[in-house]
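Continuing the batch. This is chain 6 of the set; chains 1 through 5 are on the previous pages. Same settings as before, nothing changed between runs. Recording input and output for traceability.
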Amino acid sequence: MLFKTTFKTFAFTIAFMFTVHVQALADARPVAVLVPGFFNSLAVGYVKVNPGVSISPYFSHDIVRAFEANGVEAVVVNTLSPVGTLEDNGERLIKFLDVLEANPRYTGRPLHLVGHSAGGLYSFYAIAKRPNIGVKSLTTLSTPFAGAELAATLAKRVPGLEAAVNLMDLRSLPQLKPDNVARFIAQFDLPKNFVIKVFAGHQTFGIDVTNAKNLSWPMATMSTLIGKPSDGIVSVDSAYATGILTRTQGALPIQKGKNLIPLEHWEQVLDARVFGLLGIRNPSFIRDQQTAFYGSLARNLSTTK
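Output for chain 6:
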């Protein structure tokens, strides 16, 4: 009887250790923490657009699946303020990362921040303020390092705009003007040898604005106001303007994406079906480009130490 009990205990222990070992292997995947930008309220949940169609949040399910299919777990930050300041959302991101790392599922696993638009600046803040937070790299997508020229242009051309922005408590919008972004970045120091990867988006104007390969008419209008190649919101120059980082942070291992993301600003992150509902006749192009780009990014993150 004693032998049987001892054997069962031994067998249970071996089975438990094997299970823990398998779980540890399963949990060894890197984690991409996807950080939405301005108007990030879409990251909180789902939007029902009509019976039977559910639109996924900021960073579409196609994007999440592209990461997962390439060995990287994706987590979308959903605690940011839709119109919060850079500092406010930076602090919110720090709290999100603290909660994430306290979860046994993520403890000890490599974390990589992927910030879209202003999400790249929120990420910059979090890493600079908490260099020991455990983040291995930062990837920015259409982040306005040289500011959003559109914000400055509109402020000049639309009388009373800044007063209206202040009245509606949209203080984060003026923060994206070039001079303000430069001051924001200059306040902080990133850890030495921290890896930053930057990507820019770009589309051109075409007569057929229902074609996802061309800028839509609202983005084409805004791109005209920007006055240089852009994704309709952030210029290529601004997304690649890492000179401001090296001037304020010193030498950093910055990697610039060799290829531009061939999607306008919101197409880079939102569910492709949203644009089908807005009149785009080939939303599958958006989905395919998202899958290709984020799949490639996931494979790159898998090799980042």
